Amino acid sequence: MDQQSLSVREAIIGRRSIKKFNGQPVDREDLLQIIDDAVWAPNHKNREPWRLVVACGSEIFDLHKLLRDTAIPKWKELSEDVLEKQMQKFTLPGAYAFVIVPEDVRQKQRLEDFAAASMFIQNIQLLAWDYGIGSCWKTPDFLDAPEFREALGVKSGERLISMLQMGYFDDIPKAVERKKSDEIVTVFGAKEENN
Hints:
- Helix content is 39%, strand content 14%.
- By secondary structure, the protein is an alpha+beta fold.
- The chain has a single domain (18-172), classed as 3-Layer(aba) Sandwich (NADH Oxidase).
- The chain has a four-stranded antiparallel sheet with strand order 1-2-4-3, with helices on one face.
- The longest helix has 24 residues, at 107-130.
- The chain starts with 7 loop residues before the first helix and ends in an 11-residue tail after the last helix.
């Protein structure tokens, strides 16, 4: 990476979810370095409640077939042009990371693990942005399809919480304004003013 690293604030405020990738592949070493750094997410009792299935090399073409078969069930009925257009949302990302968490039967631990894995995913997205790689955390219904879970090796007692699409892009989406602190913060003990 030749560029100067972003500050934490620049990464948080500047990052955008990228949905339109340009098809350029993501280097496996970059992806694995991002993951190696992202694991420093806070997680209760250092359980590190996540594992990943990634695709960013030649295996991505087999993943495209799985995504086609699972996400577009009537794909055989489509013309080649229509299918190609529908598949672009799957074929243009340069890498995929599927995040899997344990489904602890204890609610407290299950919620802690999901929260930790969510921070891990955010770390991946911020670190990728620093590399000039965009990402989008997606949770399509087909992640729970038995054939999709089986193809990714998701075991009983595990939950697939994220299809993280990653890749290079040509345009940065415009920022959508966020709520400010005066809209979301209540000072403890403050009395509401009656109008």
